[in-house]
Amino acid sequence: MSTLESIRAAAAQAARVVKPPPPSRNYTGVVVSAGKMSKTVKVRIMKQDWNHRIRKYFDRPVHYLTHDPASSLREGDIIRLASGNRFSKNVRHVVTQIIAPFGPPLSERPPLPSLDDIRARKDEKKAAKTERKSARISEEISRKREEKRLQREKRRAKEAGKTGGAEAADSEEPKPYAKGVRSDMVIEGSGGLHHPGKVHDRAMANSQKAIRHKEKAQENEEELRRTNERLEQIRISGEETGKTGTEEMKEEDEKTDSKGGGWFRWR
């Protein structure tokens, strides 16, 4: 083996990352609840707390949710469990040995896998999950690329249609009616059913109607101005003669009635 090959082999060995097992600690406990959760049991272990007042250690029970891969534990079993193995959000311990079974013997229960087998199976599931995730991401990227390609083709076709649409627009014949009005449309108006006609005719009719309304408004303003001037003259003449405006108006109306017409008629 040459020196170059040995250096390459050493570099490949150094580049290969070996994942060490997680830090673990073994406990001995008693199964207090089993069969209520899938492949999970509740185990009670005894810990000790230091009492500063009495200066003495006292036992304190602690409960852990423990992973049971083969569902081989029963309530009352004395087992050995290991920490540092996360199987879910709240399950971070796994059973490694049944010290003293309670109830059915071990021969009648499913065999308990070793910790190495459990970790290997867990790594396989994680690798399969990672592969599925990578395939899903690749599929999503391919789908987005295909959508972008279709959008580009549609945009190019639209631009090509715009450039070639001018010649087609020139060759088209003019329509008899404006946009939004069909030749077979019938409208019901004050005079009965009739066709709407062209936009130009309707616009001319509307403009003539607006002119008539404007002239009528000017006539009303002129009449109001003359009325105000007449009332002001009556008020001034009433102040000179000492009569009220109502009396002056009555006298003037009586004179006008005698001539055959009047502005106001008093009943």
Automatic annotation (TrEMBL):
GO terms for cellular component: mitochondrion; ribonucleoprotein complex; ribosome. Keywords: Ribonucleoprotein, Ribosomal protein. GO terms for biological process: translation. Residues 101-180, 204-267 are annotated as: Disordered. It comes from the Eukaryota. Belongs to the universal ribosomal protein uS17 family. This is Nucleic acid-binding protein. It comes from Viridothelium virens (Speckled blister lichen).
